[in-house]
Sequence to fold (228 residues):
Amino acid sequence: QKEVEQDPGPLSVPEGAIVSLNCTYSNSAFQYFMWYRQYSRKGPELLMYTYSSGNKEDGRFTAQVDKSSKYISLFIRDSQPSDSATYLCAILLTQGGSEKLVFGKGTKLTVNP
Amino acid sequence: DAGITQSPRHKVTETGTPVTLRCHQTENHRYMYWYRQDPGHGLRLIHYSYGVKDTDKGEVSDGYSVSRSKTEDFLLTLESATSSQTSVYFCATNKRGPELNYGYTFGSGTRLTVV
Fold:
């Protein structure tokens, strides 16, 4: 079983739609949960970061973590064409000074005007 | 990508030649990482550094070596490039504090083609 699973999509939605992106993970010891956005031919940029179960909101973006189900989600409200990118979930485990960051393979999102 | 510069941005090289990629940061972050990104595999860690001259292997380290002689520079060397090392290489840094982790910041990437 892969440590982090992410539906690769692609996902195509009309402008204004609500987008839901999801990942599952297998190791219950993972502690930090992140979402990165990657535009074509650019490096990933950190979008959202959380370490607890529940919701964290930042503008049109909401990150949701359910540790009991080992499930994380990113919701985008009122999606815009500028949101078109690949979204990567990433989960971090820290243990005794060392750490392991595992990425999902990414979901490619296209928001059509 | 502010604070992290990768060079070169693009490179084409021949099989069997050595190649060095450079990552330069102005953030004074202690931790630095090299990843490769390939279709179907996502981002995979090659090597990382937790301080000057302190480095360790990631999950795909075979055929790669790294060096860090200064806080700001982290070099990735392909000793003898192979076609399987054609990829996009990303450098990242991590601002870590006691009991806290702020996530990784990535550079813009180096697109390497081995022919």
Notes: Chain B is about 0% helix and 65% strand.
